[in-house]
Amino acid sequence: MTEPADTTADVLVVGGGPAGLASAIELARRGRDVVVVDRGDTTDEIAMLFTPRAVAASRRLGVDVLDRADVLDRADVLDRDGAEWFHPIGRVRITAAMADPAHPGGAVGPSTSSAWPRVRVAPDNGGVGTRTGFVARLRALAATLGVRFLDGHDATQPIVERGFVRGACVRGPDGATGEVRATFTVVADGANSHFGRLLGTYREPDWPMALAHTAGHRSPLHLANEVEVVVGVTDRAGTPIAGYGWMFPTGAGTVGIGVMLVSTSPSFAVINPAHLLERFTEQHADRWQLDPDPATPAVGGRIPLGASVGPLAGPTYVIVGDAGGVANPLTGLGIDTALESGIIAGDVVGEALDEGSAAVLQQYPKLIDDRYGSFYKVGRLADRFVGQPPVARRLHAALGARPAFAEGTLRVALQHLRSGRGGVPELVERTARAVATFAPDA
Which fold has domain 7-82+129-205+306-374? Predict the structure, then answer.
């Protein structure tokens, strides 16, 4: 599926991850000629959690990650050994880690378990799968719709003519260079977006960001129907960090285990995420029957949160997914927002092509702000609030000990709010949004 380096298209997509492929699929369905430039250097087999919202977004694209028959129908593209299966998850357990001098990482404290908070626009179940497996399924769908791929190519710099981006200069795996010219460009090259920075994007330095580190260990509990989230994770001095740890059963012989810490943590600048993961794994190895040696190597990276990267659009381009920092500031999860932002961008760019007007692209930042803006402002403020150790200790204890509080918090954090309903989570969220309008931006 590799095209010659010099080519033209209606739309160039820089980056072949979930966000970029979501845009490509939406545009191809509109009959548009799309070229995806993809370095193809991602070999991440670490477990990735799909919330019900992420499942709903993938279904809108035409990929049902929880449908085993869908995988079998694509056996010509996917491996048959189970590596590409997605494991359904019906419940979420929240466990509080309690301070204990005998356990540097904290002892296991109270725990609550609940089903995913139900919401009309999403299914009841979530799931766990690998990024590579999910991307393979999106690529297979995109290819059937006529999307073209420049695999192993790197978009080295934008082609700019009279202030308008008209595509990109690309370099192939053999070092040969060429050009991909397009009417519009979708930038989807991830959290460290090189192409976006060349276009002038920047991250708000005072807004929260996160670091995550994760690995996979073999375990007989890999078929569990429940993910576990551990709050109250501490640094070596016993100070709570803003963030959490997790265990995700994959259904394929392993359990994914990881930690995420937010920059509002008091010791963020000195915590080594790899060392934090080691301590966290030791603490929970017996309960999850983890094999001591990782089955998949530990990997990590930074996650820009809360729409902290911008501007999200220029005269002839839009920024999607982690390149735009759209991950949820309360959870650090980004697969649902990557898909949703990619779909929104595909619709807007398609409309701009239909109308022959680049001005339509300016609708995209407004749609993203309408979808996430006020909620993300609340999330950024909450990150600062939870970054205070006394607040964090009380919150973590309540999450582990009070099922109703844990379920309500989960509903708010995942944006599984019920439109038109007067429940406590919905009331808390509306009140927080109202307060946030009078507060300095996070």
Answer: FAD/NAD(P)-binding domain (3.50.50)
